[in-house]
Amino acid sequence: MKNSLGQRVKIQMGLESEEERKKRVAQEKKSNESANKYFDSLQNKNRPRPLPPISTLWIKKQIWIEGKQYFSKQNRYFEVDAENKLFLDIISKYFANDIEFEKITNGELRKGLLIYGPCGSGKSSIFDIVRIISLKYNLKQIYFKNTSVHTVINEFNKESKSNEKFGGELVVEKYSRGAIHFDDLGTEKMVQSWGIKEDLFDRILQIRYNNFKERGQKTYVTTNMTIQEIQKKYSPQVKDRLFEMFNMIPLGGNTRRF
Q1: pTM of structure
Q2: What are the CA-CA distances from residue 84 to residues 15, 64, 122, 135 (Å)?
Q3: How many angstroms separate the CA atoms of 239 and 221, rounded?
Q4: In percent, how much of the chain has pLDDT > 70?
């Protein structure tokens, strides 16, 4: 309860009795404790809950289980051979946030992944499988959107024609946010942006690099191109930032599509 005017005057003039002073101090203490509890509760409500840890062994097991189901739907087998065994181990360690990943690859867990290798080696499939696991077990820490560079280009072209005010910029904004896996990087066609020919992914990669620097946003890429070919295709700005933004992991072997 707030002090009345008369009580406030007595306090200012030093005329309150000892009993009144003790009672006032006790009330103020109680009021302060109540306020502190209220603001603490607000802080706890807004504080993100720590995400459950994932063990490397657990995610390896899930990749094997979900991988078999994923390939069986295509009438294929999930093959683990000399070419992809180490790769699957590395990917398991990465998504389990296992520090051993950094020791094996000389990479960094804070970075995204750029997986490169020949067609049919299983680059895109592993991202499909990890995404299935993230959705099945509600693992937000490993969730990402999944798309092809061709899908992004098609969306941009459609938006450019239908939206005179923004062109395709809403599509650029859409694919500049959040963790995303872009498949087939380097095979995309040029677009017309406000009447100027542009390699759209050069711009998207630069925006995502800035988001990576500012808030740790991760980007995942699969490509059939070599690192040297990617560096030649994109601008010097992207070339300069690739190694800062990505862990670059090769996946070799013959096609596994047959």
Answers
A1: 0.79
A2: 85, 13, 9, 24
A3: 15
A4: 83
